[in-house]
From TrEMBL:
Biased composition (Polar residues): 254-269
Keyword entries, A-Z: ATP-binding, Cell membrane, Membrane, Nucleotide-binding, Translocase, Transport
Regions annotated as coiled coil: none
One of the Pfam families matching this protein, by short name: ABC_tran
Chain segments annotated as transmembrane: none
Organism expressing this protein natively: Arthrobacter bambusae
GO molecular function, one term: ATP binding
Disordered: annotated span: 249-269
Name of the molecule in the record: Phosphonate transport system ATP-binding protein
Family matches, as InterPro entries: AAA+_ATPase, ABC_transporter-like_ATP-bd, ABC_transporter-like_CS, ABC_transpr_PhnC, MetN_ABC_transporter-like, P-loop_NTPase
Residue ranges annotated for the ABC transporter domain, each copy included: 6-250
Length: 269
């Protein structure tokens, strides 16, 4: 495996005395799509929010391309964080603006403030880059359509294009397909895998659909009550692994599972 582009060690987080993350360790290499699986409240979304800096972890180390973020300050820290982009379940776009305008917003951090006050003022090179990003997600022909007129799957692809226009090396996707119909969900997952494999992005996605993780992710990580139960190639994840995550009466310490093949029930989970 190549050196990880994103490396996380000992990530811990508590809210109001309740421990949500209990020392999570993982890494994502360039060109890799990693899926996080687990029941509601297992700590999946909190993990990504801590990595992104939306939520401050209580302890732990987060490194981008070998540089621990906790050792960086000022402009260096800002530049390191700009290498990460996040895609949410609730698609954060401006519905009345065009797809192109929304994608151009990914470049706001690197253009003069006065040029960011209106989409009409975005530099020509930024607009061309945004068009290229829309082309990469298959939406160049919808560049001048208002986002509110696009389908949910198309809107999520616009959000991915915005992350590309940010020039992010690491893409964190928090339940990116939970609000989409099955066909659109398949399209978005295929897009994330293609961007990881073809463009060398490090992609980490929280998913509630184990079948999508097994089909599209290179690795799958299981979280149970804030602890990791497995970190495996997705082809090696079994029905027993998933039962460990989703059986409500399973003890967190019971992480020993058999190597049986994935059952039909798992594929339908």
């Amino acid at each position: 495996m190549p050196d990880p582009l994103l490396a996380v060690q000992g990530l811990r987080k508590s809210f109001s005395g309740r421990t949500v993350l209990k020392g999570v360790d993982f890494s994502v290499a360039a060109g890799e799509l990693v899926a996080f699986l687990g029941a509601n409240g297992s700590g999946k979304s909190t993990t990504l929010r801590c990595v992104m800096g939306i939520t401050a972890p209580d302890s732990g180390s987060i490194s981008i391309d070998g540089a621990p973020l906790e050792t960086l300050q000022g402009r260096d820290l800002q530049q390191a964080r700009q290498r990460m982009a996040m895609i949410f379940q609730k698609i954060h776009l401006v519905p009345r603006r065009t797809a192109l305008d929304n994608v151009c917003a990914g470049a706001l951090a690197r253009i003069p403030t006065v040029r960011s006050l209106s989409p009409l003022l975005f530099p020509a090179d930024v607009q061309q880059e945004a068009l290229d990003c829309l082309d990469r997600v298959g939406l160049a022909d919808r560049a001048f359509d208002r986002v509110g007129r696009l389908s949910g799957g198309q809107q999520q692809r616009v959000a991915v294009a915005r992350a590309l226009c940010q020039r992010a090396d690491v893409v964190l996707a928090d339940e990116p397909v939970s609000a989409l119909d099955p066909h659109a969900a398949e399209q978005v997952m295929a897009l994330l895998r293609e961007l990881a494999h073809s463009e060398g992005l490090a992609v980490a996605a929280v998913l509630h659909q184990p079948d999508l993780a097994l089909r599209y992710a290179d690795r799958s990580i299981g979280l149970l009550q804030g602890s990791m139960t497995f970190d495996l190639p997705s082809t090696e994840v079994t029905a027993d692994h998933l039962d460990t995550l989703y059986a409500p009466d399973r003890d967190v310490s019971d992480t020993t599972v058999s190597g049986s093949a994935v059952s039909d029930r798992t594929q339908a989970a």
